[in-house]
Design a protein that fits this description.
mainly beta
């Protein structure tokens, strides 16, 4: 059974950087588009960034565009989220997700395209 395991979260001050990682146990990792989502306290889970199976196409939420970078290393079955210039409003639980049902050639922003989710990693940014 494929599993996703996130890591890299923590408590940081505003303005600094963090890098999240998501390791997948899928044998054919490059076949799947993947994404990062987040859920802040009292809010619904929202899209952050997504990446196609090859890594050649990416998509970002407006709120993180220019500050966050999504990438993947298919040889290591790992996806990353580099988060720079963190703000207090970035505080949330961050989840990685894998899309079995969506095409691998497109970075899907819709949660409905994702079939497998990690357990989440907490990111807290203090101002």
């Amino acid at each position: 059974q494929v599993q996703l395991v996130e890591s890299g979260g923590g408590l940081v001050q505003a303005g600094v950087s963090l890098r999240l990682s998501c390791v997948a146990s899928a044998r054919t990792f490059s076949k799947y588009a993947m994404g990062w989502f987040r859920q802040a306290p009292g809010k619904e889970r929202e899209f952050v960034a997504a990446i196609s199976g090859s890594g050649g196409r990416t998509k970002y939420a407006d709120s993180v565009n220019g500050r966050f970078t999504i990438s993947r290393d298919n040889a290591k079955n790992t996806m990353f989220l580099q988060m720079n210039s963190l703000k207090s409003e970035d505080t949330a639980v961050y989840y990685c997700a894998l899309s079995y049902s969506g095409t691998r050639y497109y970075p899907h922003p819709e949660q409905s395209n994702y079939d497998l989710w990690g357990q989440g990693t907490q990111v807290t940014v203090s101002s």
